[in-house]
């Protein structure tokens, strides 16, 4: 069997971690089997779909390197094809026109509720003769089998059975002639010869309806896998509506695609206790049996941990990501320490590329710091001027410029002036980088260079003079 999987997002929002997991598992399974992965944009709900979201979906998948073999297909461009199938179904008694307006439908519903029944379309138009001619508006409904069962073997959850009596005669074409979601999915899955449908468990109830349509059209039924929901830390389902966790935001924050994918693969799938997986390993090891049926909880800390791991184990191709990231932020790597030095000395402290950027941009830019008055009010005394003047003198004298010697000066000052290291370092930090930073100050001074460091201390001293006069 030639394996074909698909990712079929609706462009009604940005992609979140649940969507990416669906896409990634489908991608992995196709790759593992030398099959084909298809991208399909399900945009028939015109009022909720937007081009901006479609573009973002494509951008996100590209960023994550989840390449597709076919597509993107846009359902909105295939309306004629769906309508052809609907006409075929009408002709062959697989579907019928329903003329019930909302008033009729409401009455049916009310009566059913009064009788204590589950509200459902009562199939009254099913018996209208095909030859009946009317200019009234209608929808097209699928003739769902009246009795019997429909079942499928979910690759994650095992056998799932539905009674046909529970299923409505699904509307497959709206009054405006536009086919409905469940119908388009089926037609496209047939059209693309999809063998494995991997999607969220919110689609389980659609599956028996879709299988019935597939059967009516004598099409092969694909394998289905429904993935459990991802919950946020408040144990609410991660969704477009209640979580604005757009993956592209993570790109902006400086997460690496590998970290995102590694994180996502473990959201519901495992291989023993292994946490770190290369893409190759994921392709080899992925299987449906090891997907959990219970919901997973989105854990930002773990994602950060993985991102830190990947930042500190950059491969050659990911080094380019870093280069581009810095370039976008207008960092000219030629005007300061080399990328390798940055990676060696600063990456071990950083969880995201943004953090890395914040630690190093001062080496490349001539930025004049806007001193934070709050810090100065809380941490600066007349003593500060004294500390900085002494430090300036010692640093100026230093001939052998290395991190160790810089640290020695700071330590010596602390002893001589009898002031804690913390109090010595605080104003130096403000002077050099304008923030109360966590990375070792001697590293910062070293990479900033003697000239620039001295200049910055001088500038801060000048500022403090005015500050104290005020
Ligand atoms: N368009 C659906 C969604 O975004 C997915 C449909 C499917 O995978 O069958 O939830
Ligand atoms: Zn009707």
* Proportion of helical residues: 40-55%
CATH class type of the largest domain: Alpha Beta
Strand line-up across the major sheet: 1-2-3
Spans of at least 5 consecutive residues with low confidence:
none
What structural class do helix, strand and pairing data support? Answer: mainly alpha
- Total count of domains: 3
How many H/I helical runs? 19
CATH topology of the largest domain: Rossmann fold
What is the name of the CATH architecture of the largest domain? 3-Layer(aba) Sandwich
The main pleated sheet reads as: 3 strands, parallel
Overall 3D shape = elongated
List the ligand species: glutamic acid, zinc ion
How much beta, percentage-wise?
5-15%
What's the end-to-end separation, in Å?
81 Å
Computed Rg: 31 Å
CATH homologous superfamily of the largest domain, by name?
HUPs
Could you give the count of β-strands? Answer: 12
